[in-house]
Amino acid sequence: MSPEPTRPGLESGPPAGAGRPARTDARRNREKLVVSARAAFATADGTVPLEAIAREAGVGIGTLYRHFPTREALVEAVYAAELDDVTTSAPALLEELSPQAALRAWMDRYAAFVATKRGMADTLRAGLASGSITTPATRERLTAAIATILDSGVRAGTLRADVDPEDVTTMLLGVFLSTAASNSVEQTGRLLDLVVDALHPRQRTD
Length: 206
Description:
By secondary structure, the protein is mainly alpha-helical. The chain is elongated and about 60 Å long. The model is unreliable at 1-18 (pLDDT under 50). It has 2 domains: 20-69, Arc Repressor Mutant, subunit A; 71-206, Orthogonal Bundle (Tetracycline Repressor, domain 2), CATH 1.10.357.10. Helix 8 crosses helix 9. The protein has 10 helices and no strands.
């Protein structure tokens, strides 16, 4: 008896899951590019060459463009990753630290986020103006993270109960705007310490 003929196409298809390594490599390369770009933007004084980002990530410029066809696309990915790190970190910090210590540590993360934005400020502004970059409710998400820490501090009796989280966001923006020209890490730290001190409960005086 002759063998049953094979239906067209069954013998030539790739084995199940053959595309997964390629997808895994692509995802890994994208992550490396975002990590490289985040570091480059955080330390840059001017425009960062995309070739330098690709080289630091250990990939070719063609791979960068496959993932991020434009500089705006890369900037948006970095911005989103930085914002996610900052706005989702409050609960984890509260698990490890007291509310006031968690607030100060969170402020340092926010400062790092602002530093990264400085390295991509021109592209970010242009992208926001043109609509090619959309902001994911940045200020609202930052204020919500602050509110989470403040609420914990109020319950513990270590942070003031009469503070609007939006006011704290405004204070922090003032700190970062006022130190943008000097880019002094030491001065920024001192000002953030003052903000935390201002949020301690007031002593009652009769």
